[in-house]
């Protein structure tokens, strides 16, 4: 009797599982394999992949470990990269990842019928990792496009791609989370899934049960180079906005506020009169930027943009990025414990490599330590019960990173000298001795400790 009940329950559970067969049959013809070629580098150089520099750090580390050095003096073959993509229009436009085609001299698209065509790169956007290709063809099969904004955690999703070169591999899972922010990826609120994704799936489509593309598979979190249950896809709403701009303008423009921000922890929330930790704390306002012109100040906490709440500081960049430059945005802020509304005219994101002026009075940097710091606001001094000090706004490569300093840490003493302002910090840091232990007093989340380090330069 027990065995019969178990069989009935198992049959009922299986009956509720989705059948992906019709979806795969209808969608597969529009999913393509992408390979690239790059001219061979000089003898003695490492071949890697042509798009290695464009890969996310997680993938780059895997390939650097797994691809051996070529013997010195041997001629290296043209490098090749394998990825995936999908056709979005019957006249030959194809979407994929930027890191799949970055630095390629030749892009080859293989269709499901095994025919191959050379593609033209229409444009790419490294910030969102989206690239748009064009095939000289017509009457091609296309995918159906959905709305990623309607996705919810727990929904079934399916991926089709070419992991490790195995064409049209199908994997399925569920949406684990939406709006996921990853380190160094400020402009993409990723879709997190547990769909099995591996190198070669990059650029391939993520489908919902209606057979609509809701994302582009882009990254995985891994410690081994393989799938570990954490996959991330670019929402199709964002990808299509990028594709439309690349098709019409050849480049992507996005909104820019001109601030350096940090998360609001429990202590800061209490000091600013917030009910809970939320929002983006303005640690720096860039001179001449939209925020400075709009009246935003250091110490303001941004809680909303045009009615959309800011729960974590990482929510702010991609919300601002979706606003067209020269448009007005309504910012809900807390200043000196009072809620206010500011109307700010959003600027255009500076091009890669373009320098942005910073305020020397509020921020100083030290190349010797590899940090940028900003002076404490009156509210921060009061909440931490400090007469002065500086807060770290950015940690770059250097001694600071090696000893584990983080943005948000407060430095009160350096080399046995009290640090009251950013100028004092810069002056003391410049005079630090070489190859001698130097002490530093740091507050992290309200807890103070001394650490020591040496400058070996």
Keywords:
457 residues; six-stranded antiparallel beta barrel; elongated; seven-stranded antiparallel sheet
Describe this structure in words.
Helices cover 19% and strands 36% of the residues. It has 457 residues and is an alpha+beta fold. β27 (438-444) and β28 (447-453) form a beta hairpin. It has eleven helices and 28 strands. The radius of gyration is 25 Å and the shape is elongated. Strands 22, 23, 24, 25, 26, 27 and 28 form a seven-stranded antiparallel β-sheet that branches.
Radius of gyration (CA) equals 25 Å
Q: Which descriptor suits the 3D outline?
A: elongated
What's the overall average pLDDT, rounded?
A: 82
Could you say which structural class the secondary elements and strand pairing correspond to? Answer: alpha+beta
Cα distance spanning the termini: 78 Å
Task: Determine the oligomeric state from the structure.
Answer: single chain
Count of distinct strands? 28
Beta-strand percentage range: 35-45%
What's the total helix number?
Answer: 11
Unreliable spans: 44-55, 65-76, 355-362
Taking the sheet with the most strands, its summary is: 7 strands, antiparallel
Q: What is the helix content?
A: 10-25%
């Amino acid at each position: 009797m027990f065995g019969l009940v178990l069989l009935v329950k198992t049959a009922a559970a299986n009956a509720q599982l989705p059948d992906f067969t019709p979806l795969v049959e209808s969608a597969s013809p529009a999913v393509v394999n992408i390979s690239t070629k790059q001219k061979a580098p000089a003898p003695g150089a490492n071949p890697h992949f042509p798009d290695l520099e464009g890969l996310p750090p997680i993938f780059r580390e895997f390939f650097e470990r797994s691809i051996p050095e070529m013997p010195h003096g041997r001629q290296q073959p043209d490098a090749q990269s394998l990825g995936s993509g999908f056709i979005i229009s019957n006249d030959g436009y194809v979407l994929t990842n930027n890191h799949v085609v970055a630095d390629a001299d030749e892009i080859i698209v293989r269709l499901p019928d095994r025919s191959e065509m050379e593609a033209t790169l229409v444009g790419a956007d490294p910030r969102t990792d989206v690239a748009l290709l064009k095939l000289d063809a017509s009457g091609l099969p296309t995918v159906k496009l959905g709305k990623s904004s309607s996705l919810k955690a727990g929904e079934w999703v399916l991926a089709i791609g070419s992991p490790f070169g195995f064409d049209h591999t199908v994997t399925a899972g569920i949406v684990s989370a939406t709006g996921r922010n990853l380190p160094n990826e400020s402009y993409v609120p990723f879709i997190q899934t547990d769909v099995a994704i591996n190198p070669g799936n990059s650029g391939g489509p993520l489908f919902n049960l209606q057979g609509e593309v809701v994302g582009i598979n882009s990254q995985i979190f891994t410690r081994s180079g393989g799938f570990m249950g954490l996959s991330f896809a670019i929402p199709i709403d964002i990808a299509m906005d990028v594709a439309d701009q690349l098709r019409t303008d050849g480049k992507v423009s996005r909104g820019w506020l001109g601030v350096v921000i940090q998360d609001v922890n429990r202590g800061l929330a209490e000091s600013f009169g917030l009910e809970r930790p939320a929002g983006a704390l303005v640690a720096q306002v860039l001179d001449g930027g939209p925020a400075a012109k709009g009246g935003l100040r250091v110490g303001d906490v941004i809680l909303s943009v045009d009615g959309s709440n800011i729960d974590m500081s990482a929510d702010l960049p991609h919300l601002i990025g979706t606003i067209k430059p020269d448009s007005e945005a309504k910012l809900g802020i807390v200043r000196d414990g009072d809620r206010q509304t500011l109307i700010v005219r959003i600027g255009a994101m500076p091009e890669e490599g373009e320098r942005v002026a910073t305020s020397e009075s509020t921020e100083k940097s030290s190349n010797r330590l590899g940090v940028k710091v900003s002076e404490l606001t009156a509210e921060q001094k009061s909440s931490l019960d400090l007469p002065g000090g500086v807060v770290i706004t950015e940690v770059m490569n250097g001694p600071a990173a090696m000893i584990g300093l983080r943005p948000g840490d407060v430095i009160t003493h350096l080399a046995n000298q009290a640090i009251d302002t950013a100028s004092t910090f810069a002056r003391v840091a410049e005079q630090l001795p070489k190859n001698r232990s130097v002490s530093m007093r740091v507050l992290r989340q309200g807890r103070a400790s001394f650490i020591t380090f040496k400058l070996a330069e």
